Amino acid sequence: MFFHGNCQVTRHICPRNCYDSCPILAYTRGGKLEYITGDKKEGASGRLCSKREEILATVYHPQRLLYPQRQLRRGSGQWQQISWNEAIDIIARKILELKERYHSTLPLCLNKYSGNFSLLHYAAEGMFNSLGPTTQTTGTPCFSSGLDAQRLDFGANVTADIRQMLEARLIILWGINPAWTSVHTMPIIYAAQERGAKVVVIDPVYTETARKADYYIELRPGGDAALTVLLLQKLAKTQKLSYNPDQTTGAAELIDAALQMPAAPLLKAVGQTDEAISFLAGLLAENHPTHIWCGFGLQRHIQGGLTIRLIDALSLLTGNIGIPGGGVNFADKGMDIFPFHIMQKRQDTRFVNINNFAQSLQDLTDPPIKFLWIACRDLLRQDVGLKDLLQFWSQLELVVVADKFLTHSAQMADIVLPVTTEFEELDVYGSYFRHWVGLNEPAIPPQGEAKSDLEIARLLTRRLNELAPGTSTFPAHRRDEEFLAAEFTPAVCQALHIKKWQDLYQGPARFRHQAYPWQDGRFATADGRFHCCTLPKDFPQMLPTKEYPFHFLTPHAQEHINGQSYHQHHLMSEYPLVYIHPDAARKHQLQDLHPAVVWNEQGQITVSVRFRTDLAPDIILSMQGASQKGGLNVLNSGVPTDLGLLTTSASGVAFYDVFVNIAPK
Ligand SMILES: Nc1nc2c(c(=O)[nH]1)N[C@H]1C(S)=C(S)[C@@H](COP(=O)(O)OP(=O)(O)OC[C@H]3O[C@@H](n4cnc5c(=O)[nH]c(N)nc54)[C@H](O)[C@@H]3O)O[C@H]1N2
Ligand SMILES: Nc1nc2c(c(=O)[nH]1)N[C@H]1C(S)=C(S)[C@@H](COP(=O)(O)OP(=O)(O)OC[C@H]3O[C@@H](n4cnc5c(=O)[nH]c(N)nc54)[C@H](O)[C@@H]3O)O[C@H]1N2
Ligand SMILES: [Mo]
């Protein structure tokens, strides 16, 4: 903290699940947080995105939850403000009752994910683990398949510093829309363009990023694996592929297998002309280094893992791995340096796949789930398999939601607990794409009666132990600072080049000091080699049917993160906007700006139609979380992707392999 004029300035790091993880400076005057701006430390842009208003508005938003409340009947909207003591007492008694009834703590379930990934927020897991074996989720909806793909190929998940793009001659933005989802990377991309790099966007949708690119390659959703094989074929035929046999396994086999695949079905899978693919192959052959950035959108398909593996191999075989400006960026697991002591991890947790939660709830019978705690998550808006989830809901005896707003899930809870923002608590957050770890220091006191997830864990632990001594082993007496100190082991401090966690008061620290990985040609795999994937005989690719003739793509929106849009509901349409090509729309008797129904075998939703001439005729596009009513995921059964088990213990989910039909309402 320091003082500037008559303002107190505190350091923060945006703890949202975003590529940019922006360092923030917060200006507080007279106890009121007045202004936030980007901090330039560690090569950050010094700017904040358009969500800056949201971040600030959340703190003092009139609809923010400030007191614990109890709902008389789920979904009734009849809320009663209660004290923390009452809320925690109801929860503690239910936990003890269930434990006694089932002689087990497995009926207690925690579902926590994307709201805030900071270290001390893992107190929620810690509190659950302190009770005994409970049911929790594993895996991630974001990036499981791609993580596994890179782990299999390189042996680890390491990204290059984004400034490496300045060294590239060609930048391929593949299934990523940074103009919306990583806006602070765009200046680097523009600067690279100014230095002569060509930028290609590969996406089934003509995105904001595509508008900024030099070339845009449209393709069918899920056609990327086929596209990569076509590129390998063309480059192999012109002797543009090479590799070091001492550093690679499976390269010759992969090239052979690629050459044996007939081109016609591949071209059909991509939905592109041979000419366009030759053009792209030419760019790759002529421009060295090529930097490829694979987005999370790219791997939200059943073959997402294979796709990333093929792209890794393409990069290796064109000589782009381990050189400045080259490589395939996806996601970094640098935060794994932390021990996460606060979680009090245990071996006997009953884990279920976060991407198959609804089904798991139904399948778990011995003992069944009776108590659900939701934190940092709006299950009923963002999860898949909602039909099953809602069906199961009535069997839950107590649903607790800790959140800042009365989310879709909170509206179906028994108890809501108000949580603090990153300006009201102490914590540490690290990025999965930038290479830094930073601090959130309290700028203002908790608003209303809001409490951090850690403080809530403490309260519950204390009450449980009052009612039944020895129930919880969570170290509730420990102060925030002590929890942090335990995470910053000597090894962590050494890796971050700091002496103690308090050094982060001066700004974020780096967990990666190398600008780009694999410089010495040795990989983190068991044998130190890069592993090329095996090519299957033909590719799985999910395609529209007569009954459901449209791909339903629901990528991430510009103005808000995921479902975190309650602060701006007044600006949003009531129903989701769905974009469709006017020709396709007319075939289905749809009119621009009119309501319609979108449905599939999972259910149906009401939407508002918007014509968009740049869309393929078989795609319906809608941004997730971008309407008051939400509800897109009612249509999503949650088909698993091919990979994810290795790194996250659960497969990913093919969010974008969803097919629908549409008609006027
Ligand atoms: N503004 C904003 N930023 C965010 C988020 C947000 O909600 N809003 N969310 C954060 C989170 S949690 C995540 S996981 C990331 C996600 O951010 P991104 O990695 O950008 O992922 P998506 O938005 O899912 O999809 C990116 C692009 O993939 C395209 N795509 C879909 N299918 C295919 C395909 O088969 N092939 C190809 N080549 N492209 C395809 C989509 O059309 C989309 O343009 O962003 C983070 N940052
Ligand atoms: N159709 C479709 N669905 C998707 C996706 C898609 O691309 N398309 N993307 C998926 C992806 S990649 C993701 S990451 C998920 C994200 O979905 P979720 O995991 O539900 O995450 P968010 O919507 O980011 O945030 C959830 C809640 O956390 C709350 N929160 C914020 N800070 C805190 C805190 O400190 N404590 C507590 N207790 N709560 C807090 C927020 O107010 C918000 O209501 O959605 C997935 N769903
Ligand atoms: Mo995500």
TrEMBL record:
It comes from the Bacteria. InterPro entries: Asp_de-COase-like_dom_sf, MoPterin_dinucl-bd_dom, Mopterin_OxRdtase, Mopterin_OxRdtase_4Fe-4S_dom, Mopterin_OxRdtase_prok_CS, Prok_Mopterin_Oxidored. GO terms for molecular function: iron-sulfur cluster binding; metal ion binding; molybdopterin cofactor binding; oxidoreductase activity. Keywords: Iron, Iron-sulfur, Metal-binding, Molybdenum, Oxidoreductase. SMART domains: Molybdop_Fe4S4. Coiled coil: none annotated. Residues 7-63 form the 4Fe-4S Mo/W bis-MGD-type domain. Its cofactor is Mo-bis(molybdopterin guanine dinucleotide). Belongs to the prokaryotic molybdopterin-containing oxidoreductase family. This is Anaerobic selenocysteine-containing dehydrogenase. It comes from Selenomonas ruminantium.
